[in-house]
Amino acid sequence: MELETYAIIRLSLCQNIGVTRFNNLIEAFGSAENVFSADVSDLTQVEGINPLIAQNILNESSKKFADCEIALAARENARILTFKDAAYPEQLRNIQDKPPIIYVKGKLLDSDFPSISVVGSRRTTVYGKSVASEFSNYFAKSGITIVSGLARGIDTCAHMSALNNNSRTIAILGNGLLNYYPPENKKLQDEIAEKGALISEFPLNSFSDRQTFPRRNRIIAALSVATLVVEAGLASGAMITARICADYGRDVFAVPGSIYSKYSQGTNDLIKNGAFVALTPQDVLSQIKEFAHLASPQTQLKLEENVNFTPEELKIYALLKNAPEGLSPDEISLKTKIPISKISIILVNLEIALAVRSVPGQKYTIIR
User: Fold this and answer.
1) What is the rounded CA–CA span in Å between residue 239 and residue 281?
2) 127, 219, 335, 366: which has the highest count of C-beta atoms within 10 A?
3) Cα separations in angstroms, 315 against 94, 176, 234, 318, 346
4) CB 12 within 8 A of CB 100
């Protein structure tokens, strides 16, 4: 490992050294390696560095911690990338408050960028889950990498849609890569590491807290050319991501919802204040120059042609395609003459194939 790479890792892991103090030190001394060649009096001349922090930087314990993290990352098949590494995502390197180092488990591909982030409420509704799945399915089938935060609710729907379509997804964690949060997403987190990538700026064994989630949101925003907010309260992490996205000059899209739903207060407010309205996946892609060609009707036709239906599944799919309000299993059975005992099984198969979805009122519609 190069000396400067090691010094960046060590400095970033020092106690009470955040992004601002790290940047101040690099600006003052020219390199991380030079920081460790300075003495306490030199370090305290830098804004934000008091004698205690200076001593922590030069203390032998900072070296031991860096050595342990590097060894642990190697054992756990994770990489530590510094902002100077060629593999460090360019989209992230270009923001002022970039993390000095990121931990990566899985593979980051050149084809992952440009990407779209899909975020929203942890406590979501049936409507929110349906919309998140519908949009994410379309993005995934179009070959677009989906970025999200692996939280409950909308984030989980986005990641799962990508994986179900054998597409790429990147999860940005608010904790270390060796912790599982939320715990019920352990299997999902492992699958993303295998088929996509996990990214965190936090030490491998660190836990999440109220400060870590807002920090990880800037990485979600930075890695995406646009962010889609599906459901969000007014004071939520998704709204923070949207604001950061706008600050970075990225496009923000919001799915409108009921004026009576607290889960739609944030998205409706975003639209009120200038976010793009997202009524269909094509609405999103048509506004993004890198993906505009994927919003065409011809693309949608190709996506539908890739679905392999049995004759009975095709019959139900065709029926639902002409029933925008949806139909109940009983109505489907009546119109297709297929026994109700078989309808439930067929609908489950179509849901797994991401062709139909359930909506309120015990009805089913196609995923458009």
Assistant:
1) 20
2) 219
3) 51, 48, 43, 5, 11
4) yes
Peptide bond preceding 182 in cis form (omega within 30 of 0): yes
Q: What is the CA radius of gyration of the chain?
A: 23
Residue 117's Cα: distance from chain center in Å? Answer: 5
Q: How many residues does the chain have?
A: 368
The angle that helices 237-247 and 212-223 make with each other, rounded to 10 degrees, is 50
pLDDT category at 324 given cuts 50, 70, 90 is confident
Q: How far is CA 175 from its chain centroid?
A: 14
Distance of alpha carbon 49 from alpha carbon 55, whole angstroms: 10
Assigned token pair, 142 = 């179009």
> Do the beta carbons of residue 171 and residue 104 sit within 8 Å?
no
CA-closest candidate to residue 126, choices 325, 358, 364, 323: 358
Q: How far apart are CA 78 and CA 103, in angstroms?
A: 7
Instruction: Answer whether residue 240 shows pLDDT above 60.
Output: yes
Task: Tell me what the mean pLDDT of segment 87-101 comes to.
Answer: 95
The H-or-E segment that residue 226 falls in is strand 226-229
Would you say residue 173 has pLDDT above 70? yes
Is residue 116's pLDDT more than 70? yes
Residue type, 254: A
Q: Are 158 and 191 within 8 A, CB to CB?
A: no
Tokens in use for 61? 């314990």
Q: Are strands 169-172 and 226-229 parallel, antiparallel or unpaired?
A: unpaired
- Rounded Cα distance between 3 and 32, Å, is 9
**Buried b / exposed e along 189-207 (16+ C-beta atoms within 10 A):** bebbbeebbbbbbbbbebe
Contacts of 319 (CB under 8 A, 6+ apart): 327, 332, 335, 336
> CA-based angle 140:146:151, to the nearest 5?
125
